[in-house]
Structure formats: structure tokens, C-alpha cells
Amino acid sequence: AQYLEKIIKQGFEQYSFSHILNFIADNIENNFEESYKLWKLWMKELIKFIKKEDNNPVWIEFYHDQIIKTIKAHLGDELYLEALEMYNELPSNISLQGIKESIELLKSLPKENKNVEALFDKLIEYRGPYYHDLKQEWQAK
Q1: Most exposed residue of 8, 66, 73, 96, measured as fewest CB within 10 angstroms of its CB?
Q2: Which pTM does this prediction carry?
């Protein structure tokens, strides 16, 4: 993991980053802490690269649903929300279909949670009306 961290810190390189994401997904269940730390660093570098280069690697949606659901299981709702917010920082031209199940889990959280409401509002604003329907389902429960 320490070598992968060094590779990530050198900046985005498509081949390396795709393999590192695969490594994180393969190891997050059995080695959660290190994998979670790598994923957060990986996401920060990816976001920086995409915003700077206006580039969208085609494999971007792979594995994140599994990773975010595992974060929720291990660390609870607040860090799960943080992970979703981090993923939502990706430009709006990047689809969230790859984390559809993770987003659906928002409906299971208490409707009094202002962080969930704020995330839904961001999703609606940046991603479209589909998330408005999900927010209404969440509020109706």
C-alpha cells in the first residue's frame, strides 16, 4: 500500500490508476483501513486530474459502488456521505450510474439528516431530475 500511495501522489496516469482502483476493490473487505486511505487519496488525485485536463477515463465508474457500500458498512453513515460527496465532485459529465446502489442507500437514512438533504440538493442541481424523485421517496418514508 505504501508504494501505491507513492504512485498515486505522482499524479494521474491512466494505466496505473486503473490497476490501483482494481487493487483497492479487491482488498477493501480484508484490508479496509489501508484500502480506504488509498481510495480517498486516489479520488483526490483523479478529481484534480479530471478538472485540470477535462478528461474522462472510460473506466471511472468501475468498483466505486462496492467501495462506497463497504465504507458505509465499516465506518457508518457520516463517512459514507463523505464518500458520496467526494464522488459527486467529479464533473457532471461523469455519470453516477456506477454508484447507483450506493445512492439508493441514501433513502434508508433518517429524513431529519440535513447532510442527506444537502447531498440530494447537490445531486439534483449538478446531475439532474432523477435525484429529485429519489429525494421525494426519501422524504416520504
Answers
A1: 73
A2: 0.86
